[in-house]
Write a structure and sequence with these properties.
Strand content: under 5%
Oligomer: single chain
Number of strands: 0
Largest sheet: none
CATH class of the largest domain: Mainly Alpha
Radius of gyration: 21 Å
Helix content: over 70%
Distance between the termini: 25 Å
CATH architecture of the largest domain: Up-down Bundle
CATH topology of the largest domain: Growth Hormone, Chain: A
CATH superfamily of the largest domain: MFS general substrate transporter like domains
Length: 428
Amino acid sequence: MSAPISVPWYREVSRYQWLVLIIASAGWMFDTFEGQIFNIVRNDLLKDILGSGAGDALIKFWGDRMNAMFLLGGTVGGVLFGSLADRLGRRPVMILTILMYSVFSGLNYFATDLWHIASLRFLMAMGAGGEWAVAAALVAEIFPQRARAHASGIFHGTSVIGTWLATVAGLAVGTQWRFAFLFGTVPALLTLWVRASVRESDRWEQEAAEKSSAGSGSFRALFGDRRWRNRALLGLLFAMTGLATFWGVTVAAQDIVREFLLRTGVAAADAAAKAKFAFGFVVTAGGGIGAATFGAMSARLGRKPTFAMMLIGAMLIVPAVCWLPHSYGQMLVLLPFYGFFTFGFHGGYAVYFPELFPTRLRGTGSGMCFNGGRLLAAPVLFWIVPWLKGIPHLDLRVAVMLVCLFYLLGLVILIFLPETKGRPLPED
């Protein structure tokens, strides 16, 4: 018998389900830590690898290329390990992906050449991309229907803790960047907890027991069936709009704040420090709240209306932050809302993508949507955004607002996607 509607959703959640959410969230939190630690220490790292004579332009060039390797590795890993999770089970693949991103991140301690960094960045990202796909599928399958969106939103929202930990680690090691990557080996211990505490979801076990999982994890099955193919392609495009704007809008908040401070006469070093704080803590905090609460909002309003509300909110808050503040204090008041809307809807990916596919294709489809979106977002990051920012006499604020057109594209794509609120997870 289902619980009365008056009972809060968390009362339906068992101790084991909470445990799974904690473990999955820890995996995603450290996943984010591994991805961000490079960005925190990359100036010191690349100066060391390239030599003391390396200028800012060369460091930026190789920093962008290393992030390109991260996007490519995340795409390959998300798609590959999502498929393997549907074939072999969520638990063993989660263990493998956590080990992968921990070990290959830690090996950066020994790196002495650019190709070492590039290779390890790619391999680490494979594990990081795969872990999200597996953990998102597991959380969706473990939790009761009414609690599913809440849990998935909380799961994705914990990523900001990983960013904060990376920032703290980077500050703690100073210029000794190698030690920051040693911290990245700690998540390997999480695999012991996964192995001891996590079991396969009943849905996956039933598929395996009934031998009804023909085509599990198969890309032919995903793209051969019109229902799943359409959802995968539309989901991939939808994720692309969010991942492109993450780099072109959300992360650009740091540059927006820095240029604002320079225009008001703040010294360059002070402006850079205040901008890092504004983005690393204030914007990120707002984004984390948005991602964590997406589930609760979508449980009440529906997945598509919540996405639409946040995309429209993003299109409104960006020009507000760009043009309204007259002081740093006013900027700090607006920035949590900037993070809430421009990043918060990413929490919906963990809620929504696993609800689009059946158990035998849930990891495959979710990984294809989220991590395939990274690959499509790469040209925006490496060509469109730099081109806009490089147009002579074009104000950075105008360039960022032009990138906001991707939010409008996201709204159009959303029209063609199905609503999943209140519906059981799909099966064939």
